[in-house]
Amino acid sequence: MLKVFNTLTGRKDTFEPLVSGQVRMYVCGVTVYDDCHLGHARSALVFETIRRYLEHAGFAVTFVKNFTDVDDKIIKRANEQNVSCDTITAKYIRAYYEDMGKLGIGHASVEPKATEHMADIITLIEALVQKGMAYDVAGDVYFQVEKYPVYGRLSKRKAEDLLAGARVEVDERKRNPMDFALWKGAKPGEPAWPSPWGPGRPGWHIECSAMSMRHLGETFDIHGGGMDLIFPHHENEIAQSCGATGKEFARYWIHNGFVQINQEKMSKSLGNFFTIKEIFEKSEWPGEITGEILRYFLLTNHYRSPLDFSDQALREAKYALDGFYDLFNRLKEPTTADGPVNEKLATALERTRPAFERAMDDDFNTPAAVAELQGFRSEVNKLLEAGLSANARQQVRELFRLLGSVLGLFQLEKWQFNVDLSDIGVKGLTEEQIKSKVEERNEARSKKDFARSDAIRKELAAQGILLEDRPDGTTRWKR
Questions:
Q1: What distance, in Å, lies between the first and last C-alpha atoms of the chain?
Q2: Whole-model pTM?
C-alpha cells in the first residue's frame, strides 16, 4: 500500500487517486531565464522517479510540468541583452532539455507554457473578480487574501506570521499587504496581452493554477515542487484555485528538500552555486561524470531530506555503480553450469522485488530501494562463485533491468570503469597491454613461477588494474 508524505496534512497518507488506476500530477517547472542548477536537477529527477514508480505500480499517469515563460526575471534578462523575451525563453528551454537529457530525464506528458494559456488565465481571474475575491486597481488585479479564511493551511502558519516572514511587494493600493497580483498592468518595455482590465501580463501564481486545471481538471491527485515553493507560490495557488472553484485543488502536495554544497546551502553569494553544465565539466573530478553517476547520487538521498553535494559523494556513487556493472559483466560470461535456478538464488529473486516495492511504497524511499538492490548484488556475487546456470543469470539480469528502470539505472550495455590515475602518477594502459600482461602472468603461474606472477599483479595494481583469479582457472581484470 503506497503511502505519501502530504505537506497539506503534515503526515504520510495512504495514496488513493480520484479515479481508480489513474494518476493526474502537476509539477512546477523552471522559469526559463538561465541555465538549470543542481536544485532543478533534483526536483526533476524526484518527480520523474515518482512518475516511473506509479507506472510500475500499474497506474496510468498524466504528468504535467510547465515552463514559466513570462516573468520579471525573464524580462530583466531580455532587456539586459537587448533581445526579445521569446529569444531568452527559447534559448533556455533548449538548454533545459539538453541538461535533462544528460540525466536521462524524459519529457512530461504535457509541458505547457504560460504564454500559451492566456485565455485560461484571464478566465480564472474573471471568476475570482466576479466572486468578490479579487479586485482591480487601475489595471492591476489582486487576490484578496482575507476572502479566503483558511489561507496558510499548506505552510501551517497564520496570515500575520506569514506577513512577518515574507517578502511582500509594497503597494499602498492593496487592501492588505498580503494580497498578491493576479494581473499586472502593462509597463513600457514589457510584453503585454489584452484583458478586461487593460493590457498586461499575469502574475506567477495564477499561471500554474490555470495551466494545471486546464490539463488536469479543477481537482487532481498530486501537486509537486521544491520546498521553497510552499510559500508563497503553492499557498497562493491553493487560495486562488479553491476560491474560484469552491473545490479542493490538489489532494496530495509533495515537496523535495533543499540542496547543500559541502554542508552549506547552495547560494550564488557563497560561491558554491553549480549549474548542471558546470557539474558535468568540473575539472576536479577524476574522469568523466556521467548522467547515471549523478542520478545514482541523487537517488541515494531521500527526496525530502537536505541533499549534500560534494566531490566525494560523486566518487562514492561512481564506485557503487562500478560494483553493479562489474556484476552485470560477470553475468555475461560463458558458463558451463546448466539446470534450474538454485534454491538460494530463487529465494533471493523472490524476496528482492517485494522488498524494493515496499521501500518505494514508503513515501518513495529510494535510498532503501537502492539498498535492497545492493544487497541482492552482494548475494548474486557470492552465488556466482559456485556457478549459476544461464537461465539463472538471465533471471538476475531481468530483475535488475526491471527494478533499475524504475530508478532510471542499469540500462546501459557498456560501462566505463576508471580510476584517478593522476593520483599515482602513471598513464593508463591500453586494453591490449593489460591482456598481454595477464597472459604473461598466466604463463608464469603455469610454470609455478609465483614470484613473477606476484610481480605482474603488483605492477598492474600500481596502475589501477585489479585481477581476480576464478575457480575455473581464468583471470578477470578491471580498472
A1: 43
A2: 0.86
Q: Are residues 313 and 167 in the same domain?
A: no
List pLDDT tens digits, range 187-234.
998 999 999 999 999 999 999 999 999 999 999 999 999 999 999 999
Q: Are 468 and 477 in contact (CB under 8 A)?
A: yes
List the grid coordinates of 29: 517547472
The conformation of residue 230, written as its DSSP 8-state character, comes to I
Task: Give the number of domains in the chain.
Answer: 3
CATH number of the domain enclosing 383: 1.10.730.10
Helix (H, G, I), strand (E, B) or coil at 87: helix
Q: 462 is in which domain, residue-wise?
A: 421-478
Report the 10 Å Cβ neighbour count for 54. 24
Question: Is the separation of the CB atoms in 298 and 308 below 8 Å?
Answer: no
Judgement on whether residues 169 and 23 belong to the same structural domain of the protein:
yes
What is the greatest pairwise CA distance in the chain?
A: 96
Pairing of the two strands 259-261 and 307-309? parallel
Nearest-angstrom CA–CA distance, 180 and 165:
15
Output the pLDDT for position 157: 83
Is residue 292 domain-shared with residue 188, that is, in the same domain? no
